[in-house]
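[job 4417] fold queue: 2 targets
>>> target A
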Amino acid sequence: MKNILTLIALVLFLGIVSAQTTPAEVPAATKTTGPHLEWESTVVDYGEIKKGSEPLRKAVFTNTGTEPLIIMSARGSCGCTVPTWPKEPIMPGEKGVIEIRYDTQRVGPINKSVSVTTNEGGQESRINLKGNISADEEQTLPKNDGNILTPKG
């Protein structure tokens, strides 16, 4: 009986000791090499605008990497969103701008995006567009000219 109690105590002791492991050492943060695109904001907010308002907005970014950043392409999520990007490399520490033109003749909420591909390991980055375009008041109500149901003739 004494041997069984000793064996149980030994197993419990070993279980407790093995559970007390030290955490693995975390390696020091390594500095990123190569280009790195960092947005000032990933959201371009058009706010509440009227139909036909200025369609151009800008998304500003910085190359926080150690090598030149090249924007290879920028694509709007639909034909109503047209981006223009710099064709020359953005040097480390420099800022760049992607101009985004949205079709403000469309009435309603804006919920679109622009996908940007760079030389940063083939990663794609996304800018989201949001806002709302309201129609002119006279365009929201049909005109009653008194001849709605009158046939031509």
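>>> target B
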Amino acid sequence: MPPKKKGKGGKKGKKGKKGKGDKGDGDEAAGTAAPSAEPPEGEDREELLAKQLQSVNDELAEKKRRVEELRKENEWLQQEAHQTRVESHEYMSYMAKKTHKRQSTIVSLSDQNQKEIEKLQQEKSEVLAEYEQKKAGLRQLLLERENELAKTKKELQELDEFKKLQADQISRIKDLEREVLKMRGVHSDTLQQLKAQFLKEKSDYQHESDQRITSMGKLANKEAARCLDEHTQMIKLENRQLRHELLNLIKETRALHEHKLRLEDQRKELLREQQYAKDLAVLRSARQHKVLKSFGLLEDQQGEDEPEEY
């Protein structure tokens, strides 16, 4: 577009010269012919530079658009990294809740074991109560036997043949007492064995549960850390690539901007040269006019041209 405007300006300039050129025809036309041959070459160069400038501006706009797209993509990747960190935090919270749930399960099992201990203690109390009841019964039986023994002694005192029966009764009572003591020891040993077995099973189960929970926690933490590290490394790699592309685009943009400045300087220099050519043409015309006037040719020329003006 700028070359067309310059072209119109050149035409108007020629018309103006024709209007004023009535004052001198022959040599003035020859004086202006040489300068008028230079502008088309300068205009072609200016048009070429203008096209190059427009191309550089278009390419610069495209680079700016590409830089904006990369910036938005980088922001999206930053948001994805933040979302990944949030999800990892949620996963760790989930594992913590799951671990707490397992601890609650262990506590509930401990409560159940406590209930079983209480049940065993209740059974022990019942066995002891039964033992005391049997003991009381045996004591009552012993009293009865002692009464019988007293009666027997009395009768033995009266009847010697009953002495053997007395010895048998005493032996039977001793046997019963030994059985009672033996049963008491057996019940006590059984209770101790049950209690020791229960405590051992409880300890083994607690240890196994702790090991499983610890192993699962370590495995989950390791897996979460690995996933987070992989995703972080991937994001870092993408960020490095985007940063490299962004730096290249910035370098290209700077180069284009410098090229644009050089083209603008060339355009200004061309405009100065063009203006200098126009000024030189005007100076030559004025100098030629002065020479003609000094030789008196200009006045004769004006005299001849005056009828034409009317």
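[job 4417] complete. Note on B: The mean pLDDT is 75.
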